[in-house]
């Protein structure tokens, strides 16, 4: 998006809905304009094209998402509790905003490599949060000293992400938030019996 | 695919290459025919359409992939060693068949829900292998008794899958197979210091 203005937020919210309901490829700018109750031309004041809308929406919502997780982590004493707060807040946000979940788990898995690169750059804001937890856990001597940060991050994010994708593919048949505690336990202590 | 014949294998192999190099959406049947050195019409003797080719290719290769993992697991005594054999064979196959990796990590992430459903059904053959390891580990009292099989499976598969996707997105800059041992260790005993 080029710059902000009163209608920016309206367009962003309409875009999430239209993309979630129609899929990115069928989400014409005119559909988004209609849902946002603005003229088609207004959209082009803020966004270059449909791809720019997708990326801007993701960047915007990722900012909110990361702030929300940081806030939940803020008052936790231990690194274990911070990780639990992260997973719980992650699941809670996607449960409460199912349109976000459809967009992140299905529509943002674009095959176009350039677009994927842009999505990856925004995803980094979330992965950096995981890195801070891993660093802190190692520094405090709570986490394994020898473990590779990238591998640990890929395990945590991969587990969360696969759990959310399965939940979306299963049409929210079960409660996602209640999976946070058992996943947290498995990530901390692994498959082996304690 | 409807039935087998001498040219079936040729078409399958050509399809993997064409899809990996051009992306599924740009992989016209005529391109696949040319690469397979068959007439366009020959393809339609075996496959209904491009989507049928994608699904058939995935089913065919998944069969080989799963057999290869089962063979590697076969001579392992402990459930821990079986899990290591699975991860190592998984990474080895995708390292040696980079076209497969591009197709599985990028092109099979289709947003079309019906197509995703079909892909999920084939993926089950791989997930069932994980389930047998989890069941065996629980039965032998090596793995946590109380853990949910689906959550454990989503952790193992999610970790492997995210690791492979990052490696593909990073254009194979580093060795994937050497990540098997540290990932195996993390999955078994978690983030916490032993
Ligand atoms: C050129 C080609 C080259 C090919 C090479 C091939 C070889 C290489 C292969 C390696 C790479 C493979 C990567 C493949 C990538 C493509 C697909 C992806 O995107 S993967 C990445 C994205 N991931 C995906 O796309 C996978 C998405 N997942 C799925 O679609 C499904 O899980 C499933 C179809 C896989 C299995 O489903 P199902 O048969 O149903 O079995 P379940 O046990 O899961 O469920 C049993 C019941 O439990 C419920 N339940 C489940 N979990 C939980 C829970 N945690 N808490 C509570 N409940 C839970 C569930 O609702 C169900 O209840 P109900 O419905 O019966 O009432
Ligand atoms: C409507 C919208 C609603 C939106 C709501 C938003 C809020 C909700 C958000 C929650 C859901 C988020 C889901 C987002 C889903 C979209 C994206 C996906 O598909 S996600 C699922 C699919 N996943 C993806 O798409 C993620 C794919 N990953 C990536 O693209 C990148 O990892 C990165 C861009 C994320 C970070 O990259 P980078 O900044 O480079 O940082 P690194 O530390 O990784 O790397 C540092 C160096 O280490 C090398 N290295 C790395 N690992 C290893 C290793 N294990 N061993 C050895 N070496 C390794 C690496 O080569 C690099 O070397 P060099 O290159 O500097 O020489």
From TrEMBL, chains A, B:
DNA-binding segment(s): 28-47
The organism's place on the tree of life at top rank: Bacteria
Annotated keywords: DNA-binding, Repressor
Alphabetized SUPFAM superfamilies for the sequence: Homeodomain-like, Tetracyclin repressor-like, C-terminal domain
Name recorded for this polypeptide: TetR family transcriptional regulator
Signal peptide (from-to): none
GO terms, molecular function: DNA binding
tRNA processing as UniProt keyword: no
PROSITE patterns: HTH_TETR_2
Organism: Pueribacillus theae
Pfam families, per the entry: TetR_C_4, TetR_N
Gene3D superfamilies: Homeodomain-like (1.10.10.60), Tetracycline Repressor, domain 2 (1.10.357.10)
Keyword hit for Transcription regulation: no
InterPro entries to which the protein is assigned, alphabetical: Homeodomain-like_sf, HTH-type_Tx_Regulator, HTH_TetR, Tet_transcr_reg_TetR-rel_C_sf, Tscrpt_reg_YsiA_C
Residue span(s) of domain HTH tetR-type: 5-65
